[in-house]
Amino acid sequence: MSKHQASESGTEAPTGGNPKPGCGCGGAGGGAGGAGGTGGAGESVTASHAAISSEGGGEGIGGEATVLADQVAESFEGSPRQGELENVAEFDPQRALNEGMPTSILTDELLGLGECRPEGYQPETVCGSDDRTKVANTTVAPWRWICKLVITFPNGASGGCTGWFIGPKAVMTAGHCVYSKANGGWARRIEVIPGMNGTARPYGSMVGTSFRSVRGWTQNSDPNFDYGCIILPNASLGNQVGYFGFASLTDASLNSLLVNNSGYSGDKPFGTQWFNAGRVTNVTARKIYYMLDTYGGQSGSPTWRFLNGQRHAVGIHAYGGCPNSSTRIVSQVFNNMMSWRNS
Amino acid sequence: METTILNVMESWPLQISIQAPGGQETVALSEHARIRQAGVLIDPGSLRSGQRIRIVSRNSRGEIVELEVI
Prior knowledge:
The complex is a heterodimer of chains A (343) and B (70).
Chain A: E1 4-8, H1 45-48, E2 50-53, E3 71-73, H2 93-97, H3 108-111, E4 133-134, E5 146-152, E6 158-165, E7 170-173, H4 175-178, E8 179-180, E9 185-186, E10 189-194, E11 206-208, E12 210-214, H5 215-218, E13 228-231, H6 236-241, E14 245-248, H7 251-254, E15 258-263, E16 274-283, E17 287-290, E18 302-307, E19 310-319, E20 324-328, H8 331-341
Chain B: E1 2-9, E2 15-20, E3 23-37, E4 40-41, E5 52-58, E6 64-69
Parallel strand pairs in B: 3-6
Antiparallel strand pairs in B: 1-2, 1-5, 2-3, 3-4, 5-6
C-alpha cells in the first residue's frame, strides 16, 4: 500500500499495524527504516506520500523522493478589501542573523524587511538566545497569509497550530495538527484566522472540516510525512488575503539557505504572530533542520525562502528540540500540495 | 511510566512521541502540564528528543498532567 496514498478525514481508519519507532531530530537517513521508507513490510516511500482526504478516497500521487531539479509554484499577493497599513522599518535583521552566524551574511532581502518591528523583546532561551520578533502589522503580505489555527479534536481537546494559505481554499499545516492519534484522529473542526493580531481578526475567520494528509502520517506516525492541509468551504478568504508560493528545492539549493519562519507561539500573548530567521543547518531526504527559535503553537508554520521578491515555502515547521525542523517539501509533497491547492 | 521522548511536536499544547512496548505512542500534554527536572518546574519548551522521562499522571483524556525529566 502506498504511503503517498491519499487519506481523508471521516473515512480513514489507521491500520492497527506495528508503527516503527520515530526518529529523533537530525537522524541521518531521514527516519526509521531509512531511505526505503517506514511502515509495514513492503510499503514504499512513494506509498507514504499517498495523499489522504478527511472525506474519504485516495488521490494516489506518488513519485521518487530524490529532488533532481527545483520545482516552484508561484505566490499570489491577494486582493485585500481593506487598505494595507504603513510599514514600520525598525526591524533589525542583524539580531536574527547574528546567532552563530558571521555578520557578512546579511542580504538585501533582510535589510529590506520593513514589515515587522521588535516589541517588548524579552530574552528567553529557545535555541540559544531567543530573538523572536512580534509581527506588528499582519495585514500585509506575507504575514496575512499566515493563520492562527484553533483546533477541536474528537476527544474534546482543543489545540493551537499555525497554518498558511497555499491556494484560495487550501491552508497548509502540520500533519499532527489535522490528524492526532493522541487526540482521537482527524480534527473535528479547525478555525482558520488569517493575520490574527492579538484580539484583532482583520479578515475574520473561516471554519474548515475537510482535511488532507498522507498515509505515512495517519497510519505510520512517521515524522518524515508530518504534513497536512485544511480545505476551506469556499475561496473567499484565500482570494482576499493571498497565498504563498512553494518550492521543492535540491539539496544544493537548500544547504545554508537563509529561511524565514513566522507563527503563533503558545508562550506569547494569544493571537500574536512571531517571526524569526536564520540559515538551514542540515538537510536530509525529507527534513530541513535549523536553529531558528520556535515554540509550541508554531507547528504548521511556513519555512520560506524570500528571493527576488518572491516567497516560496520550502518546509512545514513541525518539530522542536534544537535543532528544530520542518517537513521538507520534496517532489511528492509538492505534488500533493498542488493537488490540494487546486481542489 | 518511564520512557524516552522520540520527538517533540510543536502544536500547543505540545504532543510528544515516546517509546512504547509496541513501538511508539503519541501523547499530548495538557495545557497546564507540570514538568519537573531535579524537582524544579521547567518550561515545556525545554523538552528534547532523547530525554528520559517519567509520566507521573494523566487526565481522563490521556493528556500528561505531570511529567518528570529524569
